[in-house]
Structure of FAD-dependent monooxygenase:
Amino acid sequence: MTHTGMDADVVIAGAGPTGLMLACELRLAGVDVIVVERLPERTGESRAGGIHSRTLEVLDQRGILDRFLAVGELQPVGHFSGLYLDFDESESRHPYPLMILQSAIEQLLEEWAAELGVRVRRSAEVSGIAQDATGVTVELRTGEGQSATLRAGYLVGCDGGRSTVRKLAGIGFPGTAATMTALIGDVELPDLPEDYVWIRRCEGGDWSAIAFEPGWFRVIASDYDLVADRDEAPTFEQLRDTLIKLAGTDYGMHSPRWVSRFNDAARQAAQYRDGRVLLAGDAAHIHFPAGGQGLNMGVQDAVNLGWKLASVVRGQAPEALLDSYHTERHAVAERVLNNTRAQSALARPGAQTDALREVFGSLIVFDDVNRHLRGMLTALDIRYPVDGGHLLAGRRVPDADLKTADGDTRVYELLHTGRPVLLDLGGSAEVAAVGKGWADRVDFVEARSEDDFWPVPAIGEISAPAALLVRPDGHVAWAADADDAPDTAALRSALTTWFGPAQ
């Protein structure tokens, strides 16, 4: 549906998990998109190593979760700065983290993107942007001194923590500077006497050795006495020397697949949108990778932004809808930055931190504390600031079992197309009548809940609603209880706010 004179409706810079997920969301909505990626091919570097509950739910909402479950391995354990957390199977169909390497995640998303018709242009690095009233002109370096230009309605920077798009747009990146350095690499450790080592604290730092594949270990060595030059390329020798410093030996380390470096700098874009330029994933926020939240947050950024941007591109909703992307996701990232700062502080070596960890560990055993930290890390407890006083308003919708005239289904299966759903569970003629005004863009489904009560993380069980409006990202925009007449004025307001005026 590319507009006249445009190469695409949207250009996305960066073919990592965030950029690919956003491209797929836009294609589901019929938006023409080009992904530009500076690298000539995927690196194959393992990078991030897991997917949390809410991201698993998002993949389930799109009908592609089985692809990831077939490759990864579920692990019934999580942690907050190395202190173990318990998970609650009643909170989600997918309560446990899935251990799966970022390289595999990117491959699966790239395959899905190809199926949906996403165009990916590699060896193409953004070098300039100029936006005006009708679109964005994106200048590209395409290798060997060559250049190209693309014209699109919008540009989304998903190009990492050192985002070129963010810098060219002049968007600030305030936060806290690094206080430590960690080296990470996938290597062979023939002399390691254990199956794995998980955050072994020592003088000066800590180290881990985690077996992701037979014979291969993810080694992480954190040095709290060093802040490395971010422009200096990390080396295998530095990883070996740091492990020797912390553990007293390198355990026969050899054959590195890749080596990288991270630190505890925590920064966030001052704004996620500047006119027709938006940011998502690491381009919008960076932090200490404690608890494996970064990739998950980027994918959830994409799912929050995709349907909103598509609605604006299609002319169904005003541009102001895009401002809700910043409002909702900036606050989520700020909380992640804070909890990773806390985890970094809890990991520091020294007697004072040892004492703090002992006290903190004694608190985690309490259900309320464990639930609070679990909800924060999994993102199951996120509640966006939407209008409406119902307990579900703003929260992610539970994946309830449903009975319809066409047979059994569940809520997340209704979201496979990436369209919003007005779900009537109480047979309300008023709800059905209101829904007709948005029938071109909102699916109306009559069903009956199999359960009288729905589990809601951070709250517990609540009575199944009589009706609810579910956004494409799986968050509830409006809901009504069975004991009350549905507030159809509030429903019309929610439909208009999120999906534009009635047809």
Notes: The chain has a mean pLDDT of 94. The first strand starts at residue 8 and ends at 13.
